[in-house]
Amino acid sequence: MDIQKVIEEKVRYAVKELYGTQLPSVEFQPTRKDFEGDLTVVVFPMLRVVKGNPVEIGTRIGEYLQKNVAEVSKFNVVKGFLNLVISDAHYLDFFNQIQKIADFGFTAPASKDAIMVEYSSPNTNKPLHLGHIRNNLLGYSVAEILKAAGHKVYKTQIINDRGIHICKSMVAWQKFGKGETPESSGTKGDHLVGKYYVAFDRAYKEQVLELVSEGKEKAVAEKEAPILLEAQEMLRKWEAGDQDTVALWKKMNDWVYEGFNETYQNLGVDFDKLYYESDTYLLGKDVIEEGLKKGVFYRKDDGSVWIDLTDEGLDEKIVLRADGTAVYMTQDIGTAIQRVKDFPDINGMVYTVGNEQDYHFRVLFIILKKLGYSWAEKLYHLSYGMVDLPSGKMKSREGTVVDADDLISDMEQTAEEISSELGKLEGYSEEEKKRLYHTIGLGALKYFILKVDPKKRILFNPEESVDFQGNTGPFIQYTYARIQSILRKAEHIGPRAVETSLELHEKEKELLKQLQQFPETVQLAAENYSPALIANYTYDLVKEFNSFYQQVSILGETDDSKRIFRILLSKKVGEVIQSAFKLLGIEVPERM
Fold it and tell me: CA nearest 549: which of 570, 578, 577?
């Protein structure tokens, strides 16, 4: 039962009965900490339809509610704010209702329509890096939150497996690799291919300098460097289907995919469907022809095809070159349409892509709407800011990128160092310690990134993220482990009805109020595509539990009814922490 909806309805009745008028809406806010109450009705907006003194109006409505709403036990009025005290029985009744609900806060699928969430979408010429980590964590978490909110979800990525950047790694491996493989070198496949991408750039720069020293202009030298011409020739051969080139491309891509899969598994993300740019790069051309007939696009004198978006506050955008070749926009149009053909129940898509592509997606969504696709009304660009490290920006072609694998390993190392300093792991086997370092390190990384609004840029500090105090993943994991410790010490107590006549301690009541907010938080996070709402809700819940733990005796309580209730309440808080962290892709340890 949503107490706010009940009270809203009764406030409307009160105003109609007391003042003979209809309220268009009722405004609520949480009661300020310095006043008694659990929920506050704001009286000031009512003055538009109810004339009089706000304190007097609030008092009359409060008296009406106390008389007619069983859940309202007391009230007080401060200026234009009606503070309502909700009865202990209401909160205990709520607790009895949720005790046996294992997935409390989650909604069963309510529609046949599905949403496709795209994330990761890497290039096959280098390993995943720190930027990919934010992308993966956001996309995966949003997909899980949408599921929890009652949506059917498909997770996907489009792998950028073709183009000049791929050919650069291939050329460098041919020239400098001497047949090196992941097996022969003991190197992860994506790292090996990334090594040759860096080697290409190094050789290219050397050749450019050499040509300049011979008297060529730098701009000319940059275009005529022999290794670049080799890469361009390789791309032409690939597009022509040259057997040897395609075989090398497949071999090196397979090395990369094996490496990616290991990273994804380590990171705890997965996909339902993979798309490859080598399959999709020709899609969309037929759609452009249809759009020309409909007048969505127009052809210029040179044969290129454009769309005029000046009425939308944008500009003209090319969708097909004069020679008939596609641009990225063409591919994205075609790929979106293909996805709906592959999954006819899709009625919306979420693209997890950095904010440097904001303009691209505005254009893409407008074009798909103009082409008449109904699902185009439900397209969303999950735009996010960059992740920086204290050491500064990253450049993949120069080999200064922070690889995802290295960062995960560093996080485990940081977790080990801090845990050892705090002396929290006595009695653990080495295998248990290793597993726990991974859980803590990865939890710290994920939480630090996901607690921030996606649109904001992040300065990621590994040491700060593994702090066992404050708004961090390990702090929340530690609280969950503390709850499990309480439950291990307590006698086994299954779900049971708690007497609604029980008098609640202030801290018990605050904890129950926090639990009540979880279902709404899940829905809000889904509507806003924001894991940050889940992360910060969990932190608030944990803070409330720790305050409860410090001020209220649990296992030491002599009153059986109170002790059992507090154990059951702790258990439910632990379950909600686990559920919330599952939406963030974070594990919680039983012991720490």
Answer: 570
Say what the pLDDT of residue 52 is.
94
483 token code pair: 């709850």
User: Which 3 state secondary structure label does DSSP give 269?
Assistant: coil
Check if the beta carbon of residue 376 is closer than 8 Å to that of residue 408: no
Cβ atoms within 10 Å, residue 241: 8
Q: What is the mean pLDDT of each run of 10 residues along the chain (592 residues)?
A: 90 96 94 94 95 96 97 96 97 95 92 95 92 96 98 97 95 97 97 96 97 96 97 96 97 97 96 96 93 96 96 95 93 97 97 97 97 97 90 47 87 87 76 92 96 93 87 96 94 86 95 96 98 98 97 95 96 98 97 86
Lookup: tokens for 24: 């268009």
Whole-angstrom distance, CA of residue 585 vs CA of residue 17: 51
Contact 120/139 with Cβ under 8 angstroms? yes
Cα first-last separation, the chain: 37
DSSP string, 363-425: HHHHHHHHTT-GGGGGEEEEEE--EEBTTB---GGGT---BHHHHHHHHHHHHHHHHHHHT--
- What pTM was estimated for this model as a whole? 0.92
Spell out the long-range contacts of 454-458 with Cβ–Cβ below 8 A and sequence spacing 24 or more.
Answer: 454/138, 454/382, 454/383, 454/384, 454/385, 454/529, 454/530, 454/531, 454/532, 455/355, 455/383, 455/384, 455/385, 456/385, 457/385, 457/386, 457/387, 457/388, 458/134, 458/385, 458/386, 458/387, 458/388
